Amino acid sequence: MSTPRSSSTSSPPQIPQSLTLAHTASSTTSSSSASGMRDAAEDDSDSPPSQMSEDDPGGGGGEGDRWEPDLRGGNGGGGRWAPPDQVLENVLESVLEFLTAARDRNAASLVCRSWYRAEAQTRRELFIGNCYAVSPRRAVERFGGVRAVVLKGKPRFADFSLVPYGWGAYVSPWVAALGPAYPRLERICLKRMTVSDADLALVAKSFPLFKELSLVCCDGFSTLGLADIAERCRHLRVLDLIEDYLEDEEDEMVDWISKFPESNTSLESLVFDCVSVPFNFNALEALVARSPALRRLRVNHHVSVEQLRRLMARAPQLTHLGTGAFRSEAVPDGAMSVSELATSFAASKSLICLSGFREFNSEYLPAIYPVCAKLTSLNFSFASLTSEELKPIVRNCVNLRTFWVLDTVGDEGLKAVAETCSDLRELRVFPLDATEDSEGSVSDVGLQAISEGCPKLESILYFCQRMTNAAVIAMSKNCPDLVVFRLCIMGRHRPDRITGEPMDDGFGAIVMNCKKLTRLSVSGLLTDKAFAYIGKYGKLIKTLSVAFAGNSDMSLQYVFEGCTKLQKLEVRDSPFGDKGLLSGLNYFYNMRFLWMNSCRLTMRGCSEVAQQMQNLVVEVIKDHSDDEGESETVDKLYLYRSLEGPRNDAPPFVNIL
Amino acid sequence: LKASSQPPYISTILLSHQHHLLLHFLHYTNQISPHLLLPHHNIPLPLISRFRSTSQPVAFSASSMEIDAENLSATELRLGLPGTSSSEDRPKKPSPTVGTKRALEDTTSEASGTGSAAGEDQDTTTPAKAQVVGWPPVRAYRKNTFQAAAAKKAEQPGGLYVKVSMDGAPYLRKVDLRMYKGYRELREALNALFTKSLAAAENGGDHQYAIAYEDKDGDLMLVGDVPWDMFISSCKKLRIMKGSEAR
């Protein structure tokens, strides 16, 4: 082993214990996760490594190592150093092939130059959590053998209309750079990026071995781009379109499903429930018939229950099924009966994940009984089920691990879930009426029931209108395995509905008792005390979302000083000003980003951050209405570490300090 | 993204989902000067969605194009039903740089589909409390899917049942015109309903049938001449006539 060379700034790090040898070195297995909704759009950063996992702080670029390694080959130190042992490098590369986790690879790359080079040549998946943290050129120069690229663009609050249109996150420069550099590229996963049809065409053209395309919460493309992918990517295995926004004009729509090759395809996963334009069903049926490897199929709401049956007949080997509208198209006389549909489900012996039900007829719901016992994942979050409709179904779902549902099922429905689904790991309860003054059908009662019935819970997202500290505390005690806790009390500043107290103690208990917690979203009436708890106990927290909370800048200080693993902090509408912002100065570079909107920041504070931290990009984003030139108040701040400095594609309403 | 070079215009776009409900809504571009905006922007409005669903699959459906209907109702300024989308007042300019096609995103529609991921303005302003942008934090995709479904339910008065008579058949049937996307489906459905009578008639040698309907004015018209949506709004009764009579 060549002598470790110390970096110019510090002694070589210890090789971390986490260096593990993974089971296989295969880089080409489809890495879409088994659970149907792991790579779904809702940010799942804390599930075990899925392709959208965000447990890699450094990404593809540097993670804080400031020395620029000499890539010209071993002679950086002077004449007395022996040339690298080529055999040893080959051995090293063969060994490093087995490392898959990015964090492990980052650590390995810091050992010495030789390891750096070997790691750079053997990294197969490039994960870049912020597309502006590193330039395509730099990434491509460092890594030689990349087969998969994961890129994330806009900050998450873009999902809630807080980032104006045209902000950025264009994939074009990346595709342009990846094309010539990695002709053997097989997989591209993009989240919150703007992808044009031209980009898709270029992907189809540049990568003859292309196998997997996954677009989550992206925009900018249309069925035209999809047609290119379908037509030209002959080895396509995965085409997953999840909560994207497509740009189709009515008269320019393309029948992209018909563009898949006529011969048998290697498709394993086809997810297109967000492509809301109609399509040629016969073409889909034929495609399914000639795709023997198809395991995951999620169709859009233009598929009726009769058509669904035809699809299921063609693909009895499906494991994941998105059921489309789940409603009959036919005349009442000619409508399919429930038992016919149930037969189809009974024949699909491998189904473990169901979703869809977009416009469901409740009379067809019993058709899924035959598969309930085997289901591990069930997504009813687009179906406004009542508790009476849910109960008979969920009573059979003894093996359920992931459950997404609407609050229309009420506390009653959640109680039924708690009674049966003792193995539940992930629960998401979405609001049917996502407004502040809505009635709200679930409350602390449902949360309490879940905590009692589902002790293995790891991830929860819960929208409600009424909550109590007691229920949250109960959950913190009953569900010690919680990794993700996101509670959204929709009415702003709502206190405990029984005691009238702030929700400080509830969230405090969560951070205290849930020792594995890495992601937390808070809501309700919260004082600085809650943040003191978070800072004190939330040592593993990587992602924190704050809205309408806190009294003073101390909250921010507690968080920055206490949450040592903090990666992503998103804050909105909270009384935090420049002082709070500046208390984070020493921590920003260890984070991926900070987002703050509608707080009390001013240009002075933000400029000071920009001046003092040259390796951060500090963006002040104006709302369109702010036509008055220079305003002192900052409405939206987005700052992130970057190796590249200010980006050159910023629109006029973005001021980079 | 195409640059939009069209002059300011108001057009109505017919929007149909599975049941092909007729949804008229106004499509404003942001180029319309304020005085043309109707004073409805204080009415509670759903979140803006940029997506407009098409009313028919392109090139593989028999349903007629609604271009005629579009022109027909182009002169008609109508708001959508209460609670459904109508355009929102857009005093703000969108980003001037990229994609002027995006300027058309000012429309609201019940179509299910993703809403804007980019900056949109105010949500609804209810009389009770001003809604805050992006709160509660539910993705626009999800919000719009429900608005679409809710709008559809609101629109759907429960069916448009008309009597269907067939010459020589002993009794009449009733069909819900809203169940079909277009003429072909209607034909198929009628075939299904009247199989026995058709078979009997065929034995007599007469294979030709024409479907006619009685419109609002009481006139007997041949089915298939006008756009589907116009047809279902004017059809009162259906009649399956023997070919010999139809001529």
Automatic annotation (TrEMBL), chain A:
Low complexity bias (residue ranges): 1-35
Keywords per UniProt: Auxin signaling pathway, Nucleus, Ubl conjugation pathway
Domain COI1 F-box: 85-124
GO biological process, alphabetically ordered: auxin-activated signaling pathway; SCF-dependent proteasomal ubiquitin-dependent protein catabolic process
Region (Disordered): 1-84
Pfam families linked to this entry: F-box_5, Transp_inhibit
Transport inhibitor response domain span: 146-190
Biological pathway: Protein modification; protein ubiquitination
Subcellular location: Nucleus
SUPFAM superfamilies: RNI-like
Any one Gene Ontology cellular component term annotated for this protein: nucleus
Gene3D superfamilies given in the database record: 1.20.1280.50, Ribonuclease Inhibitor
Subunit and interaction comment: Part of a SCF (SKP1-cullin-F-box) protein ligase complex. May interact with auxin and auxin-responsive proteins.
Tree of life domain: Eukaryota
Protein name per its UniProtKB record: F-box domain-containing protein
Species in which this protein is naturally found: Eragrostis curvula (weeping love grass)
From TrEMBL, chain B:
Cross-referenced Pfam families: AUX_IAA (PF02309)
Annotated localization: Nucleus
Keyword Transcription: yes
Keyword Nucleotidyltransferase assigned: no
UniProt record, GO biological process: auxin-activated signaling pathway; regulation of DNA-templated transcription
Entry GO CC: nucleus
InterPro entries: AUX/IAA_dom (IPR033389), AUX_IAA (IPR003311), PB1-like (IPR053793)
Region of interest: Disordered: 79-133
The PB1 domain, residue ranges: 159-243
Keywords of the record: Auxin signaling pathway, Nucleus, Repressor, Transcription, Transcription regulation
Subunit organization: Homodimers and heterodimers.
Entry function: Aux/IAA proteins are short-lived transcriptional factors that function as repressors of early auxin response genes at low auxin concentrations.
Family in the record: Belongs to the Aux/IAA family.
Protein name: Auxin-responsive protein
Organism whose genome encodes this protein: Eragrostis curvula (weeping love grass)
